[in-house]
Amino acid sequence: MTDSTLQIEVLHRIALLKSDGYDVVIVHGGGPFIKEALSRAGIQSEFIDGHRITTPEAYAYVEMALKGQVNSTLTGILNNLGFKAVGLSGKDAHMVTAAKRWHYRHSEKGREQIDIGLVGDVKSVDTSFINLLLQNDIIPVITCLAAGDEGNSYNINGDMFAGHIAGALGAREYIILTDVDGLLRDISDPASLISDLRSNDIHEMIRDGVIAGGMLPKIESCTIALKLGCAAARIINGTQPDQINNLPQSGTRITL
């Protein structure tokens, strides 16, 4: 999505799903844009076990990148294409309530609890405002920020955030766009695409290394969506926009 031409084509294809009878909700993160914003600000990122520590200073730039840059750009493109879109974060209308996320790891001292700053987990989702927008033919474009009960703002993993929203909405399809055709049995063989996956098989595939790396959080988010009420999840290749309008023949479909 850092390619502006591809970005426009993808959003156009997504919006066209409305012609097929779908209500469309778009949820996004923006890792590359956050990295760039922090770099420009001269903020050094500290990582613990792969998790970025988000200080209050860093959070200000995270929100600036996600809401001020990515969300604003996506919403503007959709409106320019002739659709009606509204840009939001989980903080708007109390849509998403977050809880502070703690990181745990085992050491010689035993199980350690580590503070990674303003990083959160989804605690609850209120879909009433989303449904109000959908009823008025508006596409909600939501980024993965939310407030906690105590008033703090949190950055939330985009995959987990999207999975919770899809589940809360009882979505007919939760579609994840990535840069591969779906879950591959052999990452080096595009022909090894797994077209259908049952959630009962996920644990075994993680154990066997079929589900690994960047696919792990995507599969986890699909599991969250399904358990919360989503009918089906699908992982497709967002760099091939035609897959968006050919869903039955595209990607990996995941069901309970």
> What is the CATH third-level topology name of the largest domain?
Carbamate kinase
Strand content: 25-35%
Round the Cα radius of gyration to an integer and report it: 18 Å
Annotated CATH homologous superfamily of the largest domain:
Acetylglutamate kinase-like
The total number of structural domains is 2
By CATH, the architecture of the largest domain is named: 3-Layer(aba) Sandwich
Question: How much is the average pLDDT?
Answer: 94
Quickly name the level 1 CATH class of the largest domain. Answer: Alpha Beta
The number of helical runs is: 7
Descriptive overview:
With 256 residues, this protein is an alpha/beta fold. The chain has 2 domains: 158 residues, Carbamate kinase (3-Layer(aba) Sandwich); 87 residues, Acetylglutamate kinase-like (Carbamate kinase, 3-Layer(aba) Sandwich), CATH 3.40.1160. Helices cover 34% and strands 27% of the residues. The protein contains 7 helices and 13 strands. The strands form 4 sheets. It has a 4-stranded mixed beta barrel. The protein has a 4-stranded mixed sheet with strand order 10-12-13-11. A hairpin with a 2-residue loop joins strand 5 and strand 6. Helix 2 packs across helix 3 and helix 5 runs parallel beside helix 7. The longest helix has 25 residues. The chain is globular. The model has no long low-confidence stretch (mean pLDDT 94).
Map the helices and strands.
Layout: H1 4-16, E1 26-28, H2 31-40, E2 47-48, E3 51-52, H3 56-80, E4 85-89, E5 96-107, E6 110-125, H4 128-135, E7 139-143, E8 145-148, E9 153-156, H5 158-169, E10 174-178, E11 196-198, H6 202-207, H7 215-228, E12 233-237, E13 252-255
Parallel strand pairs: 1-7, 4-7, 5-8, 6-9, 10-12, 11-13
Antiparallel strand pairs: 2-3, 5-6, 8-9, 12-13
